[in-house]
């Protein structure tokens, strides 16, 4: 199996950290300028006769100039072409306007979206369920997976969930 997976989320939620954790090397950082690169392939994960191509999708997270609008359209089209979208959020920060803006744009995208609650190493276990309930109101997520990209907690579970959609 092989497929393309797009990673979206506002800045600093841990997109590069997750890719580093999955790919297992420090290659995901590269150029990370939002709005200037389009659909950069950040890494390819290969295991068990399966390949996942991770795309960082810049330009989805804020409305800016005319160029910004164009980038948003490009980003949206990318989201329509991939097998699954990983929507990363910062569980420690909680839900914010940036998350809502992204969710709004996902309204017209039929691709399965997996909500990834990152940085769970920074929250109390009791805080998880309320967060899930809150985010569930934003979009009908195909899956919801709490992880710590930094520590690697539950990242294998996330990959198992992704594989279901390839
Ligand atoms: P990006 O902008 O979405 O690519 O975010 P980065 O991957 O650059 O991460 C932003 C910051 O969050 C960095 O300082 C990371 O070390 C930190 N970070 C990422 N994932 C985790 C996590 O699971 N737990 C904690 N505590 N910090 C994290
Ligand atoms: Mg990054």
TrEMBL record:
Residues bound to GTP: 9-16, 56-60, 118-121
Membrane topology field: Peripheral membrane protein
Chain residue ranges for the region called G3: 56-59
Compartments where located: Cytoplasm; Cell membrane
Residue ranges, annotated region (G5): 147-149
Principal cellular location given in the protein's record: cytoplasm
Chain residue ranges for the region called G4: 118-121
Segments forming domain Era-type G: 1-166
Stretch list, region G2: 35-39
Annotated region described as G1, given as residue ranges: 9-16
Similarity comment text for this entry: Belongs to the TRAFAC class TrmE-Era-EngA-EngB-Septin-like GTPase superfamily. Era GTPase family.
Protein role: An essential GTPase that binds both GDP and GTP, with rapid nucleotide exchange. Plays a role in 16S rRNA processing and 30S ribosomal subunit biogenesis and possibly also in cell cycle regulation and energy metabolism.
Protein name as catalogued: GTPase Era
Originating gene: era
Portion of the parent chain present: 7 to 172 of 300
């Amino acid at each position: 199996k092989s497929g393309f997976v797009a990673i979206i989320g506002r800045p600093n939620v841990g997109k590069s950290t997750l890719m580093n954790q999955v790919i297992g090397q420090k290659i995901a950082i590269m150029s990370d300028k939002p709005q200037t690169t389009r659909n950069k392939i950040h890494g390819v994960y290969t295991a068990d006769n399966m390949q996942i191509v991770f795309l960082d999708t810049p330009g989805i997270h804020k409305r800016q100039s005319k160029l910004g609008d164009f980038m948003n359209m490009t980003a949206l089209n990318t989201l329509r072409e991939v097998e699954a979208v990983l929507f990363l959020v910062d569980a420690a920060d909680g839900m914010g306007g940036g998350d809502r803006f992204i969710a709004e744009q996902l309204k017209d995208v039929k691709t399965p979206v997996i909500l990834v609650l990152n940085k769970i190493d920074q929250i109390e276990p009791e805080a998880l369920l309320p967060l899930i309930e809150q985010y569930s109101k934003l979009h009908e997520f195909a899956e919801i997976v709490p992880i710590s990209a930094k520590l690697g907690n539950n990242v294998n579970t996330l990959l198992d969930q992704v594989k279901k959609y390839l």
